[in-house]
Amino acid sequence: MNAQPSFFKVLGDQYRKWLSIQLFSWITAIIVIAAGWIRPLGGVDLDRLLQVLAVLAGFAGVLAGSMLFRRKVEAARDAGVPVREKLELYAKAARLQWGLLIGGACFSLFSYFMVGNWAFAALGLTLLAVYGSLNPFKQKVMLQLRLSEADIAGV
Hints:
- By secondary structure, the chain is mainly α.
- It contains six helices and no strands.
- The protein has helices spanning 7-34, 44-78, 83-115, 118-132, 138-145, 149-152.
- 25% of the residues are buried.
């Protein structure tokens, strides 16, 4: 008899995997660049261009992710569908938000590798900290979807 893991465990595990991969990537990048094992390829002109693009990508990821997530959660909350479907809609919205944030962080990581500017590491790690605040624990999901313990008892 295979017991299906709970929705919250599966979503939380996905979140933690993405967080772990990002942390590992950033730690590796910082060590590799700081130790001088890889020399940055770009010059000052590329650095300036990437600074603008990285800030725009990070800002767009945070802003668009937050707005889209809020809209999709409101739509899921107001939809007249079963609780399991509301939770699936929530998971899709969360993954979209996470993807947009991680996209900005990955661009910062790429930029850091290209020019070795610590500002990219700071921006990427800041985006990662924002991502860290988005942990989809059970009470938070219930609050955002306005669900009660009785609603999710069978999920």
